[in-house]
Design brief:
Helices cover 33% and strands 23% of the residues. The protein is of the alpha+beta class and 75 residues long. It has a domain at 12-63. The two termini are 20 Å apart.
């Protein structure tokens, strides 16, 4: 997530893997832009599902220009 004084689009995350990158909507899991390999995308979807409430709370913080809380990576 990026800090943003105003919301830009739906709540989403930016994911990067090697030369690939994508923006993924938190609520629906819809890929807003870009692409990732299927295996990595599956892992990201699982991580989003596990941390959805935390991600949405962090989205609110970022939208207000505040620092988000750290979220545990998928292990």
């Amino acid at each position: 997530m990026y800090y943003a004084p105003k919301k830009h689009g739906p709540a989403h995350i930016h994911a990067y893997y090697q030369e690939h990158k994508a923006s993924i909507e938190i609520e629906s899991g819809k890929i807003l832009s870009g692409s990732l390999p299927a295996k990595q995308l599956k892992l990201i979807f699982a991580w989003i599902e596990i941390h959805k409430e935390e991600l949405l709370a962090d989205w609110q913080l970022c939208s207000n220009g505040e620092k988000p809380f750290k979220i545990e990576p998928l292990k």
